[in-house]
Structure formats: structure tokens, C-alpha cells
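Problem 3 from the worked examples.
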Amino acid sequence: MKKLIAFLFILILSIPLASLSGCKTRAASAGDYVYDHATYEYYSTYGALNTSVPNFETFAAIIETHRVANELGKPVKADPGWTYYIGAGAWNQTAIIQTDTYWDDAKFVIDDRNLVEVNQRLFRVTSKMPSIDDSLVGKALKKGDTNVGMTFEHDSLVSVVDNTKMRHRRGFNDSHPQREEILVDKNGNIDSGTPILSDYVVTSSTVRPIDTEQLVIKGGNFTRIRAEIQNRGYINRNILIERSNTLVDGICYEIQNNENPDSPYNGFLRIQNSAHVTVQNSANRAQNH
């Protein structure tokens, strides 16, 4: 078993997972499957097509399936053995995942040959609980404090910023306001794994509640047809995870044409502003840059 675990918090983590073994195609299971519409939402219900031929309908259906599932609180299940085409250009939107998602043996062809919007995520995993901005503004926090001096409705990941103090990164000419990420419980107690490392007078803050129930994303075989554009920055056509307590299990990602150095990609899984995220049993081929 290959496993990558974010035990505490990850501000930004972009994962190509190059060290893992190559993708292993799962056997299609469509033949004997009986659809359970009472339990799951399926992409085919909303107009997805079982084809790798370019079309606009499929990704629109994927977006709509997750929208309805999020509203109803139902898990999403890919149609067993299906292939879904996700093109670029026509549907510059993102599918929002807030419920368990079972891609299983389904295949997804990501065709970036006509890519225009380089920062349009494919999927974004978010919490239904909203973040709270600036509730800690004005508070003085000291290095080694064990409590932030306020209570919360949920255990939370808290970002604190002091823009009166600038931090410089070694080897870079830029600077950024002092910032830390800390885990707190409902009583404001600071987790010993994320201690405050500097003194603050907080000028901005974000409180991100941590979900108590784990969200599961399972399976999925993703193949990318790489963009042919020349792009100075990184392309972010990927899966963005911004929900704490998330498990990604058994995802497979590879690239069909991996020879264009002018279109570098960020990792297929990008994890940020979240805690307790686990990636396991996954095979992803790294991009050439």
C-alpha cells in the first residue's frame, strides 16, 4: 500500500506522486451492474455520454450531477466502465465536490489541446461549512501560547496574518506578511502539533471549520492530452482539495503526450487550506517540465 497522509495542515501541496507505481487499468464492470438511483447520483442521469469523442455535454453533466448531489447530500457514482470526455474551451467551469464520490473503474479523458483558461480547475473539493474571515483581528498572540482566547463552533484550521511584519524567503527577492496556520479545538486550545512560532498582532485571519465526517473520493482513471500552448506559469487543470478530513483512495493519472516543455502543469492533486487529508493507493505519472 502506498500512502501519503497530511496529518495536520497543508497550506499548499501539489502532488504529482512520481514515486508511485504506474497506473493499472481496472477491469470494466458495467455488464452486471444494477443502478441504485435511490442511493447515488450518476453522471448519465444528467446527460453524460460514454465516449472519448469530443463533446460538450459530458462535463456539463458532471458539473450538474455534483451540484444536485451536494444539494441532496447524496454520494456520486460514476457509471461503471464508462469513459467520460472533458474538453477545454467550451466549459470553463469547475465541478464542486461536497459528497462522497466513487469513480471506481470509470475513465476520464482530459483534452487540453484547445485550452484557454489555464487556472480553471476540473474538480474542487470543499466543505459545506463556510469559513469565517477576520474574527481574530486585533488579537495579540505570543509565541508558545496554548489558547487563542476565543471559542469556536467546530474544531478549526485557523490562518493568522500580521502584515506589519514581513518575511523573506531565502533565495527569493520577494517578501510576504508573517502568517501561520494553527489547529484549534472548540475551546480555542492550540494543537501541540501546530504551535504558534512568532508573536502576532493579527491584521487578518480565516477560520476554516473541520468536518467531523470523512469525505471519500475513490477510484478513477484519468488520462490527459496535454495542452499545446506556451504558458509562462503553471497550468492548474487539476483536482483542488480544500476540505479537511478527506480521503483520496485509488486514483490513477497519466499523460498521453508528455513532450511539450512549454506547458508545465501543477500536480494533478492540489491540497491547500485543509487538515487531515489522506492520499493512498494512487498511481500518478509526473509531468515533464
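Problem 4, a separate protein:
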Amino acid sequence: MMKQLLAAVAVVVGFAGCAEAKDAKLAQFYSCKGTDPSGGAYQVYMETAQLDGVNVYRQWTPSGQVIVFGQGFYDKDRFIAMQWFGGDWSQPAVMEYVIDGKTLRGKWNYQGSAAIFPETCTEVKQADIPKPTEPPHDAADAGVGRV
């Protein structure tokens, strides 16, 4: 019994250390840099949360425009997600982040492209980044923006 309890505690502590969240409803904030499909560099900010048991996130530009929302799941040291972007949120993409302490090392691909694009996100404090100026389309359905 004691071995099972210690194993359960180790798993919970290990997962909490990877996800950097002690409270599942506590949002996390990241500053992200990556490469866009044209080969140019971009910077966005990301908010992640677990709402009603669903892991959700949104990304916005330095000017505050929300450009991505998505949801995903954890698999050991990875966060794998489906996301939507584009003016009408109709462009799907797949994102995979490897969780490395306070850094997320990601790669993504969007519908119709064979290329894989890198993205690295570093955890930051909410006070250190601009706030989004708009919620994503259908934010209530996506669960994003209710944080």
C-alpha cells in the first residue's frame, strides 16, 4: 500500500512539475517565438488552462489580436493539440510541444502543408506580457477565454 501511495505521489508531483501547474484551473502564460510558413520569424503570447477537464489554450500577437485557439492532451512529457487559426477560425493545424521545465519546444503543421514549423515557448508572468484585446471566435465553445 505504501509503495502504491508513494508511486501515485511521484506521478502527481512529476506531472505537476512538467505542466508547471499546481491547480488545474490556474492559467499558465508563455512568450513564444517561431517560424511562419513564409520562413519569417514571429512572436506570440500563449495562455493555457484546464477548464472542465479540457486542456485549452489561445495565442495572441504583441498587439493583442487573438490568432489561435486550441485544445489538447498530455502524453508523458508532451502536449499534443489541435488548433484553429485564420480570420474565420477555419484553418486547422496540429501542434506538439515537448515540455522541458519552463520551456515548451514545439513543432506544428497546418492543413495542406507538408512542412513542419518550429515554435519555442518560455513561461512568463501574466503581468509581463500584453493582454489579448479580443476573445477568440466561439470562445465559450472552445473553453478559451473563460480563464
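Solution to problem 4. The first strand starts at residue 28 and ends at 35. The helical segments are 2-19, 139-142.
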